Amino acid sequence: MLTQRQLFLQHVAQTSDAPLGLEIEKAEGVYLYDVAGKKYIDLISGIGVSALGHCHPNVVQAVQVQAAKYMHTMVYGEYVQSPQVQLAKYLCNVLPSTLNAVYFTNSGTEATEGAMKLAKRYTGKTEIISCYNSYHGSTQGALSLNGDEYFKSAYRPLLPDVRQIRYNNFEDIHLITNKTAAIFLEPIQAEAGVIVPDKGYLQAVRKRCDETGTLLVFDEIQTGCGRTGNLFRFQTENVVPDILLVGKAFGGGLPLAAFVADVAIMQVLQHNPVLGHITTFGGNAVCCAAGLASLQIISEQKLYEQAEQKAQLFIQMLNHPAIQKIHHCGLMMAVYLDDFDHLRKVISECLENGLVTDWFLFAINCMRIAPPLIITEEEIQMACNIIIKALDKVYIK
User: How far, in Å, CA of 329 to CA of 35, rounded?
Assistant: First the structure.
């Protein structure tokens, strides 16, 4: 009889020739447990998803209660479903007044796709700008925005009228013109190695968008929901976008994302054509129940206020000659090593010793640290000890 691992490799479509292959039995808090009972510290939160850790009791209860009532009833936007309504209301209440209409999707990449359509439909323009080394998803429209040719070249031709500018470069802002429907920006470039923009950069982009009638879209799919020291990063920067993208941690561990705009913008999807954007499962009732429970905990307990303090603990404890520098914003951190080969060995050694970490798509010499927001000081110390031992083994012969 084939093992579970063999069946996984045989029947589950693979995205690389070397999947991580952990066989997970259960997960709780900041820990994953494999079928042999081995415990791992999850230092990447399922790539930014598990902000409250795994199986938070409030989220589990919300899922169970809603699943017992109903799961799927009708495609998005047709029936009044309380979980959707309550989550949309709660989200809008914690956002600026101009972000007051929520379109729920299944994933971040679908939020990107919806926002692209919305921007073109509302402005009547076709040009969309993004940044080099940006990541906005993997479907063909979102891929067109991504700023790295390695992942794009095999799938060309992609969308026309899409161009990239240099992130955090004031000189390139003038490339936003009257022909530009929207510019998609990450308030912090995640996959580039946690690049925090210089003071005034996002404000300058906002000003240029106002001058040219361009919609400013902030992709907070990875930075949002408390990860970077505020509920959403743009709130720290004091720049309000025209469209906000949320996802990953937004679903509390279930597949849920959204694009958010002013109702005056969003209403163009109602006509010419009617059903201007459609989704079957976006805003699923169970997912929205989980998302509401998660967002309430993060917001009302102000877990984001602890993010910077916990990041500083990581920085203090990760003292090793192999570490060149650490970029961070709250609990989104990139630990810079010299090259990918060494990093890969460090990650492998960490895994062997019960810690899960990763690298970044466009910064493959950087170790990703983005633990659940609930991680404790003791767990941070345990994680750092494992990393330091791994660095010693790889670098100090």
Answer: 35
